[in-house]
What we know:
Layout: E1 4-9, E2 22-27, H1 36-49, E3 52-57, H2 62-69, H3 74-93, E4 101-104, H4 105-108, H5 112-127, H6 129-149, H7 156-179, E5 184-188, H8 193-200, H9 208-211, E6 214-220
Parallel strand pairs: 2-3, 2-5, 3-4, 5-6
Antiparallel strand pairs: 1-6
Amino acid sequence: MQYFTHKTTPTHQAExxxxxxxxxxxxxxxxxxxxxxxxxxxxxxxxxHFKHSAVLLGDSLYRLTLQIYQEIDDETAxxxxxxxxxxxxxxxxxxxxxxxxxxxxxxxxxxxxxxxNLLAVDRFFSECSxxxxxxxxxxxxxxxxxxxxxVLGTNYEKAMMLAERYLKAEVAIYSTLAAEGWLxxxxxxxxxxxxxxxxxxxxxxxxxxxxxxxxxxxxxKRKNPVPL
Length: 228
């Protein structure tokens, strides 16, 4: 399938990555510049390269993104994230001739293992300046970009707090999945810089499985992808 080019992090795993028994393809509800056609193709690329594949849907995480864009409470954001997640999932599955294994952040974030990992991430954030600085830098880069676009729905300080919460939860999710043996993730676009630095060993890791992850970043060969 020649729809994508791909890049592997860490680079020394580029030739070994396809020998791993399984991988998941991540779908973000905030992937504004990625079409459903691209998302389906990305999953099928993953399925064709790995013996066992799954789809990770970032549904519950999206509630924090919604609160960055809108002044809404946690309950409203959770409901809206669920509605949008279901709609995206129906659209995605409707273009497949089979039902893939599905990993949902909504489910993962209710597991005791996730709660333990999130506590570990929060503690590490307080104790490790390199890790906390990296998370803050990633949050600031994102929020500054949204502010420049004029789409922040709340004040800058609250937006930063929400972005940091999002990123810490994302690290905890990937830590949970890595501990369960999901060491390879495939995604259209770039890896979160903090996670990339952990993989490369330039930022300390909160857990050994997290550093053992491999990211495969896909880039569409189409010049003008249709936005979602």
